[in-house]
Amino acid sequence: MTAEVSLANILRNMCPELHEETYVFCQVSDARLEEVLTQSLCIFREGEGMSAILPRCLAQQYGIASSGPFRQITLQVFSGLSAVGLTATVARELADAGIVANMVNALRHDHVFVPEESAQRALQLLRGLSNRVYYT
C-alpha cells in the first residue's frame, strides 16, 4: 500500500475512528519505564525525561501523575510522512470549535488525542471535514 500525500485525498478518505480506551499523558521515571513500556501507547524522550501516553487505568495502578483524560481518534488513511497540512487542518478544525487537539503522527496513520468530554463532538467535526472535502 502506498502512502497518500495529497491533502485533499487524505482529508476525503481519513475515516476518523474513536477508540474506547481513555488515555493520559504523563512523565515516566526510569524506574517505572520497564514496567509500563509494553502497555504504553507511546513513549517519547524529551530533554526533561520520558513522556508517555498510557491507558488511564495503568497510570492509576502505578500512581503516576498525569494530565487528561483523553480519547484517541485515529485517522484511518495511510498518510505519508511528507504530506503537508494534515496536522494543521485537523488542529484548526478542532480549535475553531474550542477543542484541544494533541496530534501524534506515526508511520502509517495520524492520531488525535482530545479531551474525553469532547470526543464525540471532535469525531463529528472530523467526519464533517472529510465530507466537506469529499463533496467539493
Can you give keywords for this protein?
VC0802-like, 136 residues, 6-stranded antiparallel β-sheet, alpha+beta
Structure description:
The protein is α+β, with helices and mostly antiparallel strands and 136 residues long. It has a single domain (7-134), classed as 2-Layer Sandwich (VC0802-like), CATH 3.30.2130. The chain is 35% helix and 33% strand. It has five helices and six strands; from the N terminus they run H-E-H-E-E-H-E-H-E-E-H. The chain has helices at 7-12, 30-37, 56-62, 86-96, 119-134; strands spanning 16-28, 42-46, 49-55, 66-75, 102-105, 110-115. It has a six-stranded antiparallel β-sheet. Strand 2 (42-46) and strand 3 form a beta hairpin. The chain starts with 6 loop residues before the first helix and ends with a helix. The mean pLDDT is 91.
Ordered list of secondary-structure elements with their pairings:
Blueprint lengths: L6 H6 L3 E13 L1 H8 L4 E5 L2 E7 H7 L3 E10 L10 H11 L5 E4 L4 E6 L3 H16 L2
Antiparallel strand pairs: 1-3, 1-4, 2-3, 4-6, 5-6
Structural class: alpha+beta
CATH architectural designation: 2-Layer Sandwich
CATH topology (fold) name = VC0802-like
Alpha-carbon Rg, integer: 16 Å
**What is the overall silhouette?**
globular
**DSSP strand count:** 6
Average pLDDT rating: 91
Helical fraction = 25-40%
Low-confidence stretches: none
Distance between termini?
A: 26 Å
CATH superfamily: VC0802-like
User: Mind telling me the CATH class?
Assistant: Alpha Beta
* Main sheet: strands, sense, barrel: 6 strands, antiparallel
What is the string of helix and strand elements?
HEHEEHEHEEH
Q: Tell me the β content.
A: 25-35%
The number of helices is 5
What strand order characterises the main sheet?
2-3-1-4-6-5
The total tally of domains equals: 1
